[in-house]
Amino acid sequence: MESEELRNVGLKVTTPRLKILSLLENAKAKHMTAETIYRQLSEGGEVIGLATVYRALAQFEAAGLITRHQFEGGQTVFELERGPHHDHIVCARCGRVEEFYDKVIEDRQREIAEKLGFTLSDHALTLYGECSNGTCTAKNG
Amino acid sequence: MESEELRNVGLKVTTPRLKILSLLENAKAKHMTAETIYRQLSEGGEVIGLATVYRALAQFEAAGLITRHQFEGGQTVFELERGPHHDHIVCARCGRVEEFYDKVIEDRQREIAEKLGFTLSDHALTLYGECSNGTCTAKNG
DNA sequence: ACTCTACATGAGAATAATTCTCATGTGCAA
DNA sequence: TTGCACATGAGAATTATTCTCATGTAGAGT
Ligand SMILES: [Zn+2]
Ligand SMILES: [Zn+2]
Ligand SMILES: [Zn+2]
Ligand SMILES: [Zn+2]
Description:
The structure is a homodimer. Chain A is of the alpha+beta class. The first copy, chain A, has helices at 2-8, 15-26, 34-43, 50-63, 103-115; strands at 66-70, 76-80, 87-91, 97-100, 118-131.
């Protein structure tokens, strides 16, 4: 249950936090902006402040429940941290986001950091391109 | 000469543009924010608007003269596009930025994009970590 | 060199995303 | 239950960036 998750990371179980977590869990889009989360909850009849959404997301991130991504051009998006780590590829035309995990790249990153005298703690990798004409849902061909 | 560079990409040769290019060329820091460029030029006695700096940087980027990076937490930084492509590793404590190029990672990215049905056009890779105690110049231990 | 025009500029207003402030509300340990 | 540390909503404030607009100027054509 979501209450568990909150308790486990030392956060009080409150209605706004539960609503946000469960929206992230159930929404059609896996990667959502703060604004979108706010809007969808508001439309669903919740009374919630945008500041509360931002606050909760920051806390969830600090607690490791969610991750934050900054795709170029776009707003910051958040996604539930479930399953193994992955990186992203974004279609520059239609905005579609696909996920991937590549062990070779992950390992190489660690080696590179080491070679340069760094202790690796995190990384951000995003590929940009255009998805095939068949799948691309761009507004204007 | 910098005038050449501007002409080559179809931009008029103007004083602000020359000053910005030459600052990027000569400044101690290789990765600079728009604000820093603006401040350093102003301190050097130039009369230049911040909007002009942003405009010029956007044009330089579109023309391929510079690249833009968004390191997490920090402001957008720009750097002259000289020499081969590289990615970055940033120290979370002192902010030091090192550059690296790794053929294995670059090749893998292309393969991954292909496998997912994308035509790769760009990518952003930044590693985060802490540099060794010897080199780290963090404010507070 | 002179002129004309499209493009560039500086200053400040405007926007967008995010964070802060503060008066009020509430989870939960005791 | 009660108390209080923490959470919340609303709106103000901040930050980074872009826009507006009146004026200036690079450089093509004379
Ligand atoms: Zn990864
Ligand atoms: Zn993802
Ligand atoms: Zn690269
Ligand atoms: Zn660099």
